[in-house]
Design a protein that fits this description.
- The protein is of the alpha+beta class and 129 residues long.
- β2 and β3 form a beta hairpin.
- Strands 2-3-1-4 form a four-stranded antiparallel sheet.
- The two termini are 28 Å apart.
- The protein has one domain: Alpha-Beta Plaits, CATH 3.30.70.
- The protein is built from three helices and four strands.
- The N terminus is likely disordered.
- The longest helix is centred in the C-terminal third of the chain and has 13 residues.
Length: 129
């Protein structure tokens, strides 16, 4: 019998490790507003600098690539799961290397977003590729 240790992946999914913080959504939470807040306060990109292109989908693609794409190494990623989930995670996807600089970046982001009381933790899982 073969036993697999570590992460499992196939062509439609991939495993991830994110170092970040989580918080519970309240009834006033808007993912779109939170995305823009992260882009402006954490990534320091003013809203007016987000390209519009020919239509609003170009802007949504730009935001997706900034915050959700798997290849945005050492940049922030939002994990929101199913729309009915109550928890949001903001962190940095990591593969290897020193974690201290990443912890510092995540703590600074949490402070800018008003979540300085949140603990920085590892989050793992599998996502659609």
């Amino acid at each position: 019998m073969k036993i697999r240790t570590g992460f499992v992946s196939n062509s439609s999914s991939s495993s991830f490790v994110v170092l970040g913080f989580s918080f519970k959504k309240d009834e006033n939470f808007s993912l779109k507003k939170f995305e823009l807040e992260v882009i402006e306060k954490v990534l320091n990109i003013p809203f007016e600098d987000i390209p519009i292109g020919n239509n609003n989908y170009d802007r949504e693609d730009y935001i997706y690539n900034l915050l959700y794409a798997a290849d945005n190494s050492n940049s922030f990623i939002i994990l929101s799961g199913h729309p009915d989930d109550e928890t949001i995670v903001l962190g940095i996807e990591i593969a290897s290397g020193e974690v201290e600089p990443i912890i510092d970046k995540v703590k600074e982001a949490a402070k800018k977003l008003g979540f300085s009381d949140k603990k920085i933790k590892f989050f793992t899982g599998t996502k659609m590729s």
